[in-house]
Amino acid sequence: MANAKVLLVENERMTAPSFQAALEKRGYTVTIEHSAPAAIKRSSTFMPDVVVLDASSLKTSGARMCRQLRASLNGTPILLVADKKNPPDANCGASAVLITPFTPRKLLNMVARLLPAEEGASLLVGPIRLNLAQKRVRCGDREEKVTPKQARLLEMFMRSPGRLLTRKEIIKHVWETDYIGDTRTLDVHISWLRSVIEPNPRKPRYLRTVRGEGYRLDVS
């Protein structure tokens, strides 16, 4: 997304390099605050497309700050950067978590994934096209609108065609939880996707089950 606005929350006295330079080099407009209340106040006028919360620089897990931001920012994606010695809990409200250390490229890739898709932006894998902005799937002569969760699930498969995705991996990415005690929700979403992309959902050609392991998108 061109000209995206990033609200970066980091320590006022940084000991490590700030992420600001890498974000601005990518073309993002960056503004910096040093606390959750200040970030919430700034967001009312800056209206960020994504928030990067560098909890590692603030010497905290970031969980409490993340919950404050989540409660006030009305769905704005939050990327939480945490230290492996002080990780956040699973219910902190972050859209995604990066554990230091990592490369600037990994940060930029994650920010790009969290940004709203530009109108018309789409993925095409084999006969399947997913419009990321409109959440519409086209396969053959059929086109249908899907839910945000279904779109995110299909996007995960389309970005890794031919690769086995385990149930645990899928649930962690799409539902942002490590809990896999009940996988019926995943099974239902897979069934819905098959009803959209498969010529015969009862005999899947593209979205294959790998028994006991997970699923794989097979396209020519």
Topology, element by element:
Blueprint: E1 5-9, H1 20-25, E2 29-33, H2 36-46, E3 50-54, H3 63-72, E4 78-83, E5 96-100, H4 104-114, E6 122-125, E7 128-131, E8 136-139, E9 142-145, H5 148-158, E10 165-166, H6 167-174, H7 184-197, E11 207-210, E12 214-217
Parallel strand pairs: 1-2, 1-3, 3-4, 4-5
Antiparallel strand pairs: 6-7, 7-8, 8-9, 10-12, 11-12
Helix pairs in contact: 2-3, 5-7
Using brief descriptors, characterize the structure shown:
220 residues; alpha/beta; Rossmann fold; Arc Repressor Mutant, subunit A; 2 domains; five-stranded parallel β-sheet; four-stranded antiparallel β-sheet; elongated
Describe it for me?
With 220 residues, this protein is of the alpha/beta class. The longest helix has 14 residues. Strand 11 and strand 12 form a beta hairpin. The relative contact order is 0.10. The chain is 32% helix and 24% strand. The strands form 3 sheets. The chain has a 5-stranded parallel sheet with strand order 2-1-3-4-5, with helices on both faces. The protein has a 4-stranded antiparallel sheet with strand order 6-7-8-9, with helices on one face. The chain contains 7 helices and 12 strands. Helix 5 packs across helix 7.
